[in-house]
């Protein structure tokens, strides 16, 4: 079965599921920080912003959206697209916003740490 | 964290399932619609756009499943799904389900009933506060460990000891309650005032004894049991403070003990203060004593102090106390006697073994079923079910079976427990035992249920999930045995079942054989037509010898005059209920050697009423009176023990007379042996030796008597007419618990009959289960070898040859099991040695009988599948190939 989240430059990274799941949550929260989006919108936006490095398929996106909604960090609401089609729009809740701040700080910490390891002269 | 949100989602998930599912479906649909529209915007047709979206991503169903697995409560959902699936799969094969549930129900039911008893008698802690501080006190005779206590000694102990918060002596007796219809004998515990404090017990109503209520001059108060309060006094709260007539004297009821407590399960109906005379005897040991250790005083300290006190007493009274000391026992250690303990443990092992045999059966069956379901399981695994998931699904099925079996088992166990309890004579278990199918038993059962499911379900589930998926699918629906290895495993199961069943059968067989020997043992007298009853007298407290003899003579005359009654007598102990007194004595020609013997005081009619066989000399007779020379009749055991090879007649023994009150000893007296009679098995049918002597009531009148009468006709009417005769003579004279001798004999054997019956029953159940196992495996093997058998038949094998082949194959594990079982039985039966009467634990006859029985039943179980095998039609088999 193909991996649902593709990382185009190196497929082996896709195996580290835990890291990816946390990352996906962070990406979704960040994406919704600006404005509410429906599922396709979230996937599009992530692909765009990462210049096509992350392509999130529905098999990963939907479980993640429902997981976040159950935790109360985002909330889904049915709305209408410009062409009149109904779609579920997800928006960041106040507790989701707090969570995002925390995750963001965390990420920076991890990133700095990893960078330091990588930058070290062998 | 957001527990509120989670809980709301969980709630919605299970209660709004349809709506949640609908919404998820809409959401995924809308996702694909948007993608499709986008594709169409790029100029694709709708079909092309849809195809593109589908190829690129997973299908909608998989996505929805992933969301479901991700949601809260997913494990609950999976479990519910498994249970639903298991239920469907079980209802699809009702025959198998019924058999499995019945097997488990029998196993768990037996376990529940026996565990209720084990828990109630052996495991539950006594209901007293700090029961480990309660001890039992004994005098320690020169040769021996435990002896009753004399009143004078007890008084010294109580006064001098410092180790105890409370100490109480007790003795049993009876008093006649009159004043409400027929006189009724109440069983009385005469106890020292601190008795209830020793046990830390309070009255439920009123109070227990005050410290001075056992002093001379007091003592006209009683504490009664809840059961007596309810049955005799209708639970009247006003009873406390009122007087009742006991032995013709008024006693004030001061308290009622709590119901459903140890005190309600004790032998006593009533407790009265034990009041000692001003000069209590030191040489008549009729008391037992209990005490409560002071906090901080160790058991060893108490033992040391008691030894010191007793040592001092021995120095003061060397004539009667030389070499005597004191023994202290933990009360809890003496609550359950060794044989009861052993019986319960053996029965617990037996029911566990029955359950295991049942489990082995089900494991075998499930393996066979898994083989039949190999394709379904392979399909599931091909579709992505992980092995753990398949094992889990199959285990859920086992657990569901086990749970259904447990529910039925509770009902069965409850029935079995009630049945066993109905067979128990009153006071069979100690009062501290609390037998009930309560929460503890249910908890045990829940644990046993889960373990059972794992025991019979885990191996088949793992085996089923291990199968090669591709192979199973390729086989195209033909059943596959799981190879030679699995077959060997099945045969090993059968061998183990047979071995365990064999051991149980030997155990049960030994107990039944020993019981058989017991009931045919010569009890030394004819019990037919004999009835016996306690005869508590109103003059019990301070009897006068001449009045006592007169009273008994007149009473016996009245009874003898009743039509249908041939003989009547009184005795200081009823047949099969001990000797009444055990007395130390000397032979007149050897005053140094202290000997011991049972000493029963009887009127001459006792011998003829029981048809006790005369071996030499004469019986006691009417000529042996208070003024004639004192004489005794001894039994054969007495002669064997003390006068082997000598002529006992004319020999004299020196024994103190027993005081009429039976609370002290009279003058040392020389008794001439005038007769020898057969042993009457006074101490129980299982006693091989029973040394005893009989003295004439006229020469040593005592209270504490029983009435024995022989008559003709129906025992019920016999008892009624004896009662009428007694009441004609004295309307207030009680007859305590009149019973036929046959019934007394039967009750004295209950503690042997019940384990024999139960173990025998469980052993038969084990055998039936083991044989079902043999039948199941052979049926399966025959079905599996159908084609082989068909080819053999086609090549000219006769039916007889085929039957022989299958039976021979089936009997190999059976024989192996029997050999294993023989080894096991040889090693294990010695543990029940103490439960056996005149039966060797390695009794060959029992072993051989059991082996033959088991082998023949097992062969019968082989015959049906074998016969089926011989009916295989070679043509149809070959066509299938």
Provide a descriptive summary of the structure in words.
The complex is a heterodimer of chains A (122) and B (881). Chain A has one domain (5-119): Arc Repressor Mutant, subunit A. Chain A is 57% helix and 18% strand. Chain A is built from four helices and five strands. In chain A, the strands form two sheets. A three-stranded antiparallel β-sheet of chain A has the order 2-5-4. In chain A, strands 1-3 form a two-stranded antiparallel ribbon. The longest helix of chain A is centred in the C-terminal third of the chain and has 26 residues, at 94-119. Mean pLDDT of chain A is 79; it is low at 5-18. By secondary structure, chain B is of the alpha+beta class. In chain B, 53% of the residues lie in helices and 17% in strands. Chain B has 28 helices and 22 strands. The interface between A and B is medium-sized, with 26 and 30 residues.
CATH architectural label of chain A? Orthogonal Bundle
Q: Helical element count of chain A? A: 4
Strand content of chain A: 15-25%
For the largest sheet of chain B, list the strands in their spatial order. Answer: 3-4-9-6-8-7
Which fold name is given in CATH as the topology of chain A?
Arc Repressor Mutant, subunit A
Number of strands of chain A: 5
Q: Can you tell me the number of structural domains of chain A? A: 1
**Lateral strand order in the biggest sheet of chain A:** 2-5-4
| Mean model confidence by pLDDT of chain A | 79
Overall strand count of chain B? 22
Largest interface between protein chains, with number of residues from each side: A-B, 26 and 30 residues
3D shape of chain B = elongated
Largest sheet of chain A: 3 strands, antiparallel
User: How do the SSEs of chain A run, as a string of H and E?
Assistant: EHEHEHEEH
The stretches of 5 or more residues of chain B where confidence is low (pLDDT under 50) are: 476-481
The overall pLDDT average of chain B reads 87
